[in-house]
Amino acid sequence: GKGRHRHFMAKEIEEQPEVVAHTLTTYLNPSEGTVNLPETGIDFSNISRLTISACGTAYLAGLISKYWFETLARLPVEIDIASELRYRDVPYQKGEAALFVSQSGETADTLAAMRHAAEAGVTVGAVVNVTQSTMAREADAVFPIKAGPEIGVASTKAFTCQLATLACLAIAAGRARGYVTPEREAELCESLLKLPRLMNDVLAHAEEFDRLGTLLQPARDVLYLGRGVSFPMALEGALKLKEISYIHAEGYAAGELKHGPIALVDEHVPVIVIAPRDAHFEKTVSNMHEVMARGGKCLLLATEKGLEAAKTDEPLLGSFAMPDVDPLFSPLIYALPIQLLAYHTAVHKGTDVDQPRNLAKSVTVE
Ligand code: M6R
């Protein structure tokens, strides 16, 4: 049940430090600082390309992992939403591999895209939560995300456990392809193993989102901005908010702002800026200042130092101080404020958080 929580979503948000720790120790050995994949895995060492596909939040976890596979394993990644990939005329080659990400393992489009790739002779891996699912049964390799049952329609802990699993896969791919040395592997494992504690640090201040939620509640439209791995996070923030609060929200790559969406900015459109301390920080903050110069009201998610560095005369609509984290893996931590913001906004609006209108937990029809 929900225990002391008002909603399953609140419970599942809070479970993340524990379940992510469990996922990580499934795939990596903390004392040795190595990643160990299940026996029947995917041979990343000599594939020419990796295809990734999924729907909704699972797709966004896949999109984040694209950055990881490229950076850590120098592996070309093709990624598309499953409802498109299944009908595309993809020129698959034998000896390629593909990963399909799904909490339920039953999503119709993801399953169809997986079958299509398998028929083309591609080795298919399923990154799933439900290990008795159709996708798990049919895939050549199964990578359980170990999140435990997720009841809330809005995916939270499955997302971070998908990320934890995909991060381990990317490290393993990097090692298999000779781009990740044993020293680097140990460092990366250490960075990952720190994440559950950092998640707890964020959750210790979760009550701040009650107030931040009141700031979004009156909005008709909300924009989310991020660069690099924070771009898919912007998409995830917007998806989460629209799904449970019914507020129209869009995520954009911060650099794409000037190419259209900045026309939407006025004092009535809150803009959520996701800016961890990474190589993109200055650029993202300068995009935020462009928004503010046009009267936009920004809510900044950044480290204490980042918040200090981003200061201007114009006050922010709001901010939340995030812990320092390995920039590569920041999505696992920034997922929390994104989820909490959507959750509290929805609670203030009085919507049905766990069962939003028109949505099903598992989309088994096309
Ligand atoms: O079970 P799956 O992971 O395949 O589901 C995919 C999407 O339907 C799912 O992530 C959906 O977008 C969530 N409701 C998002 O919170």
Provide key terms for this protein.
366 residues, alpha/beta, five-stranded parallel β-sheet, 16% strand, binds 5-amino-5-deoxy-1-O-phosphono-D-mannitol, aminotransferase, transferase, Glutamine--fructose-6-phosphate aminotransferase [isomerizing], carbohydrate derivative binding, repeat
Could you write a compact summary of the structure shown?
The chain contains 13 helices and twelve strands.
Q: Could you characterize the architecture of this molecule?
A:
The protein has helices at residues 8-14, 16-27, 56-73, 82-85, 108-119, 134-138, 157-176, 182-203, 208-216, 230-245, 281-293, 304-309, 330-349; strands at residues 28-29, 34-35, 50-54, 77-81, 97-102, 123-128, 141-144, 221-226, 248-253, 270-274, 297-303, 318-322. The chain has 366 residues and is an alpha/beta fold. The strands form 3 sheets. A 5-stranded parallel β-sheet has the order 4-3-5-6-7, with helices on both faces. A 5-stranded parallel β-sheet has the order 9-8-10-11-12, sandwiched between helices. Helix 3 links the parallel strand 3 (50-54) and strand 4. The radius of gyration is 20 Å and the shape is globular. The mean pLDDT is 96. The protein binds 5-amino-5-deoxy-1-O-phosphono-D-mannitol (M6R). The site of 5-amino-5-deoxy-1-O-phosphono-D-mannitol has 16 residues, from helix 3 and helix 10. It is an enzyme of class 2 (transferase). Its EC number is 2.6.1.16. Homodimer. Catalyzes the first step in hexosamine metabolism, converting fructose-6P into glucosamine-6P using glutamine as a nitrogen source. Residues 40-179, 212-356 form the SIS domain.
